[in-house]
Amino acid sequence: MATFVTIGYGDQPGYDRTPEEVRNAAHANDASLQRAGAVMGVAGAPVQVRNPDGTGVRTASGPYLSSELPVAGFAIIEADSLDDAIAKVSPSPCAVAHGVIEVWPLGGQ
Known about the structure:
The chain is of the alpha+beta class. The strands form two sheets. The chain has a four-stranded antiparallel sheet. It has a two-stranded antiparallel sheet with strand order 3-4.
């Protein structure tokens, strides 16, 4: 098994215009992934951390990256391959509710 980090992007209007039965199935998919060992969470407010040349920690509120949609959540999942990871997250809320999910292989896979 390989490990993947997923980043879900989505907003409330996209979620709200998705049919309730689709949203419910998406949440059931996430619950299934969690029962299988995925670590998931809804994104909170980000903090940027810097320590240039080890001279002292500096923080700033807010995201460093920018995207069309806000970051909605993260997950760490196990899958047999990238294709398997994509199949596992494609029914998730961000993917079905007019958002997007990035899948990042960990460890040079």
